[in-house]
Amino acid sequence: MMTASTTYTAAAQQATEAQEALYANTEDLPTWPWANLAALCGAPLPGDLIVVGARPANGKTTVMLGLFDHFVTHDVPAIYIGAGSEGPPRDLRRQWAALRCGYPAHLVLENQWQALPSGARDQVFAEIQRQATEAHHIALFADVGERLTIPALREALQLAHRTENCRYVLLDHIHRLRFTAGQNPRLALAEATRKLRDLAAREEWVVIVAAQLHRAPSLGGALRDLIPPTMSDLKETGTLEEDAVIGLLLHRVRRPEATPQEIHAVAKGERPVADVLEPNCMAVRVGKHRRRGHVMDHTAFLYLDASGRLTERGNVWRTKTERQPGEEPF
User: Fold this and answer.
1) What is the C-alpha to C-alpha distance for residues 41 and 247, in angstroms, rounded to an integer?
2) Which terminus has fewer CB within 10 Å in the chain: N or C?
3) What are the DSSP E strand ranges found in the chain?
4) Helix count (H) and strand count (E) of the chain?
5) Given its phi and psi angles, is residue 119 left (phi above 0), alpha (psi -120 to 50 degrees) or beta?
6) Taking Cα atoms as reference points, which of 65, 92, 91 lies closest to residue 78?
7) For residue 175, is the peptide bond before it cis, meaning its omega torsion is within 30 degrees of 0?
8) Are 197 and 209 contacting, i.e. CB atoms less than 8 angstroms apart?
9) How many other CB atoms sit within 10 Å of the CB of residue 90?
10) pLDDT confidence of 324, banded at 50, 70, 90?
11) Sheet holding 139-142, edge to edge
12) How do beta strands 49-54 and 246-251 pair?
């Protein structure tokens, strides 16, 4: 049983730490690059584990690379851990350079220079050189090889630890982790998630993890990518849902003018789903926010341009009668 002296000592220590936290400067922290999402979620805080979930080809890497560029632009050291299909550092750096130069990433990755403005290759070349000369201390890409294993992830995190004032760790994506033979993948993934959570708290990093969502036919067949996902849709483990401070879920958006007949035809496989999609629109749904429970299920809408840059976009669900003359539906 604790004595009065012992309980007072513990309470006094906790109170002192709580009082000191009142004076922590959060004004200088980079917030989200998109004002509507920043208004919902506030700035990511040191120690946060943030999960960005999406089904395949629904924009995980686009969001992650956009966040990386945003943090580096604010001169805050960040490390990007890509894996598998996300490409080696060579490809990620070219993709990042294309983003900064305003060119479609696929044209740069495929060396389709004839489809780009004159001088595009020289501009991208110079931007990659800038990454090495001017941004080498704040913009790091971990080389984890072809397979993201636990030892490779550990080595990447050690690089972050050795980087002075590293504040952001971006992992794209956690379901690319490969485990040793005999390990239970679900349990191993849960353990890796807990370690990332603990590491974020101990190092005072913001750890942002992209994650895969289930893609079962029961989720809506051809229209499944239009169904707003929930945190329970995260693939293979509930630990991501439990440990995340913030959960952001990406999905596509149908055109407000899409008719029930068009949607029915897509559901039957008679028309491609692209026929009912709002072009270049990404929905970012807040699936979880430990500090701001009132923003649960709120959605920010973003516009995706040809270079892969995400910018603000208004609510696409406004009807024609709600718009001002000449105003676009988003």
Assistant:
1) 10
2) N
3) 49-54, 78-82, 139-142, 148-149, 168-172, 177-178, 206-212, 246-251, 281-289, 299-304, 310-313
4) 10, 11
5) left
6) 65
7) no
8) no
9) 11
10) very low
11) 139-142, 78-82, 168-172, 206-212, 49-54, 246-251, 281-289, 299-304, 310-313
12) parallel
pLDDT of residue 148: 77
Closest to 290 in 3D by CA, of 236, 228, 245, 238: 245
CA atoms in the 13 A half-sphere facing the CB of 320:
4
> What distance in Å separates the CA atoms of residue 34 and residue 44, rounded to the nearest whole number?
13
**Predicted confidence (pLDDT) per residue in 158-182, tens digit:** 888 888 888 899 998 788 877 777 7
Q: Which residues make beta-bridge pairs with 51? A: 209, 247
Q: How distant is the alpha carbon of residue 210 from its chain centre?
A: 5
**Which residues fall within 8 angstroms of residue 269, CB to CB, at 6 or more apart?**
222
Q: How far apart are CA 105 and CA 111, in angstroms?
A: 10
Tokens representing residue 21 in the block = 């936290």
Contact predicate 41/32, CB 8 Å: yes
Cβ contact 303:330 at 8 Å = yes
Superfamily of domain 27-77+147-322: P-loop containing nucleotide triphosphate hydrolases (3.40.50.300)
The confidence score (pLDDT) of residue 150 equals 80
The residue whose two tokens read 């407000």 is: 256
Domain positions in the chain are 27-77+147-322
Average pLDDT, rounded, for the chain: 84
- Distance from the first to the final alpha carbon of the chain: 62
Residue 220: predicted pLDDT? 56
CB atoms within 10 A of CB 215: 13
Per-residue pLDDT tens for 5-53?
A: 688 888 999 899 898 888 887 777 788 999 999 999 999 999 999 999 9
Cα 197 to chain centroid, rounded: 16
Neighbours of 264 (CB within 10 A): 12
The residue behind tokens 């490809």 is: 91
Amino acid present at 330: F
Q: Which residue has the tokens 């513990």?
A: 10
